[in-house]
Amino acid sequence: MPVKGVKQAPIVVEKDSVTVRGIELKGQWNRMFEPRVIDDYDLTHLDRVAALSGGESIEFCYQCGKCVPVCPVDVVGNYGPRKIVRKLQLGVDLTEDADLWLCTTCMNCLRVCPKEVDMIKIMPAVREQAILDGKFVPPELQKTFENIARYGNPQGESPRKRADWAKEAGVPVPIMASVKRPVDVLLYVGSYPSYHPRGKDAARAMARVLTALGVDFAILGHEEKEDGDSVRLAGEKGLYETLADSTIKTLAKYRFNRIVVFGPHEYNAFKNVYPKFAAENGLAWDYAILHYTQFLAERLDQLTPLLKKPIEITTTFHDPCYLGRHNGEYDAPRRLLAAIPGVTLVEMGRSRENGYCCGGGGGGMWLDSFAGGHQKMRLSERRVQEAVEYGASLLSVCCPYEVSRFEDGVKSTGNDGKLIVRDIIEMIDEAMRAE
User: Fold this and answer.
1) I need a labelling partner for 411 at 20 to 30 A (CA). Which of 3, 62, 101, 220 fits?
2) What CA–CA distance (Å, rounded) separates 430 from 336?
3) How many CB atoms lie within 10 A of CB 401?
4) Cα angle at 11 between 8 and 16, to 5 degrees?
5) Which residue range forms the structural domain that includes residue 408?
6) Rg for the chain (alpha carbons), in Å?
7) Pairing relation of β-strands 23-26 and 17-20?
8) Which of 186-190, 282-286, 429-433 is modeled with the greatest confidence?
9) What are the angstrom distances between the C-alpha of 1 and each of 5, 6, 221?
């Protein structure tokens, strides 16, 4: 009922069409400016993810979309945290969806996310739940879990062969159990440098370089096992905990000043993940951890005079996600490359903080066949193409996952003869050798 003295709002009448100054306006123009409905979804599956330990931040996403253009998987497919959240809103159960296994936990989405939606915690949490619930796990990943549980390495090789690479190193490679004294450096070799043919090349090069520098080092030999960080990220938390417990107790038997690791994933595990696990389980863990590029970069005064053979080549460098974005180390590998005579470094557009991903992280090393069914190409293949586009003749790396991945990518993209792949330690070893 109208109130005397109070101006009444006009009655709004919606018409299908009206002409204003000769321009026809349809009725739907009005509806375009109505509030967008955002609360009429069934959020059951989104809430289930948010209820997991580690999955809480999935609720922070407000669909800005900044994550999608930096997601390496989206470059070769249709992916991104925003898209995953949207699928959850539409009723998709992530524990039964292929998207669960495609994330490489590269961290580029978290780098740009204004709400800190942390897929590095979310995806492993959901993967763990999927495994616990008996949901589908890609067969190649399941086989890897079995190999690691049984043999301590993803290749399913005998633990007794773990130090066989050292027989052809050309220098003595001491083993802790035989040395029976404290050493300066415990070199944690890792599974791929211990067993993979190209990984062995890098391990032998490392032994020769450390010997030339006079470093007092030793390895664990057959006592060494897979560190388990990629296993954890792939959702097998129980297996990771078994591996971490075994490694911590093995290291406690010996005395050394620091641990030098080959791989960024081991570096991340020992620096960031193991300390928490040790504290929660009443175990000791107080070690100085260095990636091999950091260790050698600290010794450039000793190293540079030994690099006498020029390597005349143009190279580009691939930043490992778990050395770069996860742990902030971008300079040590580049300092080593700059010290090698004859080497010219060209940077790719996606480098340093915005570096691309090789596809091996978060269990992706063991999911190429599965991922291939959901992507236009492997991430490693796209990276190889990018290296060629920037005019490099050599793609240099410092992660054991990457040499084999990129060499396969060189062949599958038809760039054999145009691009070679080398670990930085191989390049240093070559530069040390006389003509």
Assistant:
1) 101
2) 13
3) 25
4) 160
5) 300-432
6) 26
7) antiparallel
8) 186-190
9) 12, 11, 90
